[in-house]
Design brief:
Elements (H helix, E strand, L loop, with lengths): L11 H4 L13 H14 L2 H12 L4 E3 H4 L6 H13 L4 E5 L2 E5 L2 H16 L1
Antiparallel strand pairs: 1-3, 2-3
Helix pairs in contact: 3-5
Length: 121
């Protein structure tokens, strides 16, 4: 009997935060909820470091074994990665005994658009 858990891969279109630039129009309740969840997840320094480690890793994908040295225990790393996944910022895939995390390009593009166009105004 195996204790491993298979994580479904989040499709890019499902992972991308769906929000217009902040200065385009007021966010709907659903858009604000989704965006707040994303920013809330990134508001924790450990989660921000993990997100950055995955995003900057070669190929935009990293094995948990390559990014877990952030000064907290393995279970705490798993908790923070789970929060990033729940916010739609990461997707994951189990390969053997390791889980590989990926930041979907659509997520980074949407985050950039959300803030960049608002800052340019």
């Amino acid at each position: 009997m195996s204790n491993s858990t298979e994580f479904p891969l989040i499709q890019p279109e499902a992972a991308a935060p769906c929000c217009p630039p902040l200065n385009e129009r007021p966010l709907t309740s659903e858009e604000a909820e989704r965006t707040a969840k994303m920013f809330d997840a990134l508001g924790n320094p450990i989660r921000l470091r993990l997100f950055s480690a995955v995003a900057s890793h070669e190929g935009g994908e990293a094995c948990v074994c390559d990014i877990s040295d952030v000064g907290v225990s393995g279970p705490t790393v798993s908790h923070h990665l789970k929060k990033l996944k729940e916010a739609g910022l990461l997707s994951s895939e189990r390969r053997g005994t390791w889980v590989h995390y990926r930041v979907e390009p659509a997520v980074l593009a949407a985050m950039g658009q959300l803030l960049t166009k608002a800052a340019a105004a």
